[in-house]
Amino acid sequence: MEHTTKGGEKRILKRCTYPLTAPACVKRVYTDLAVLDVTERGFVVIDMVLGITIGELQALGDAELYVA
To answer: Are 39 and 61 a contacting pair, CB within 8 Å?
Structure first.
């Protein structure tokens, strides 16, 4: 998926804004900018595209990111 919406809104959020049909079933998120593991601690950055910093990636999401 794209890391942000076409309008530039954040998609990696602290809390889901949609009704949950299967809570806690997602273990990994793949975006056009990074691969994130979903853990009890939060989102853990597994990999990022070249040319982006962790700070820039953090600024594009609402949830705190942790580095593996």
So the answer is: no
